[in-house]
Write a structure and sequence with these properties.
Helix content is 46%, strand content 17%. α1 runs parallel beside α3 and α6 packs across α17. β6 and β7 form a beta hairpin. It is an alpha/beta fold.
Amino acid sequence: MQWILAALFGALAVILAFPTFGWAVPVLVAWAPLLVLARDSTWRQRLIFGWLMGFTYQVVIFRWIVFTAREMSGLPTVAGVGLLVLFGLWHGLMAGVFLALSEPARRAASERSAALEPLAIGALYAAIEWLWPILFPWGLGHAFWEMGPIASLMAWTGVPGLSFGVMVFAATVALFRATGSWRDMRLGVASLVVLLGLSIGWSVHLSNTPPRKTLRVAALQMNYSLKEKKGATLERRARLAERFLKALRDLESERYDLLVASEGAFPLFWDLDADSRSETGAERLSTQSTRAVQRALVAGPAVNAIVGGLRRPPGAQLHNSAVHLGADGQIEGSYDKTVLVPFGETMPLSDLIPALKNSVPGVGDFGRGERPCRFDVDGERVACGICYESIFSDVTRETAGDDASLLVNLTIDVWFGRSTAPWFHLMVQSSRAAELGLPLIRSALTGISAIVGPDGVPIKVLGLDETGVLEAEVELRDVVTPYRSVGPLFAWLCLLGSSALVFRFFRAPRPD
């Protein structure tokens, strides 16, 4: 019974740290009870009850998968429940594997000194969390995403550093509970002090670095409803397009330096050759609608704009795209999404098994782009991502390169309803800003649109199901985070260190 209670306590602590509640502190001790019990247990007990904890918080946090599978992919509710269970089993297994391996790592570390145990357990967890194939990547460290002086640690280590710190805290508590020795806590406490010092130090560095430029930015939130998006006929798309064009024309001229309109804000199809194409032929509607956007932009804000929408090249697959238009309405560049949403924009394994394409109504067969999204706006390099792909740290870091000074994200969260998913999406994308030390402009079709500072903390937000324009003056600074320079070096060090400990434990001769 104590195992079950410990697992459920841990799951509850993780759930409370999610944006629905936003209680970050309990996550610090989420794993402590199980780590205490793990000291006198079998590997099967650790695997099963770690798995139970992971499964529980995964299915509660990601329960919106059922709604999304039904509304976006057209799957029956029972299939959505099945997907959620499979999701919870796979992602929860990560917690079981961690707890199963925690004792080998702890014991190998304790052969040198008991004080090393919290660091060994923290490194093991950070490595497994980083390495595990996850559909929607997030970590325990995300609990502190709105606390700038703490979230700034991601500038040094990425999310794994914060997760490492959370687990070191829990392991230090568990160690003291098991031994009652303050001396054994010294390295755990010292490592937490170092991490906190690095985090606060970077936060102070950001605050003390004067901006070299300020951009007046706006994120347009059109707020098309789920009913309007589902099964959108050409007639319905045309009505939405009129709303979008009116919103553009109503914006004050030359008020902004950059306007961002979300994924799907332009509900028809882009014609990237509209500037030179005749309006006759098969592309006539796309040409006319693209030119209408260009005219509305000139008549309204007359500003550089990055706008999301679809495009279908002749004889090619549909693409989820972003288009950069200049203040004169000319098309300056475009981007096709490279990381597609499983069971939404693509059917998993369909590239290997072509019969899977279009096998489920509602699951699309989008084409993938072939290059990162990088636009030049007002002398600044803007790194852009569409929806799902922006939650991956490696994708965003590669897109930003060494010269981007601003991040932009275009997304549609209407498919998640009023669940925790839009907040989750914002939480994970905000960490990309903290990792790279770059401000982020996020335009979401139905919310949550946000202006995020270079420490990963939202400065302004426009909530769910609101229509409007989110305005802010965004300061650009000449800072380069260590994470941007070296990438996931901290995670690699955790992986190498914990692997060496586990290998040492199993390699050592066991008593007969």
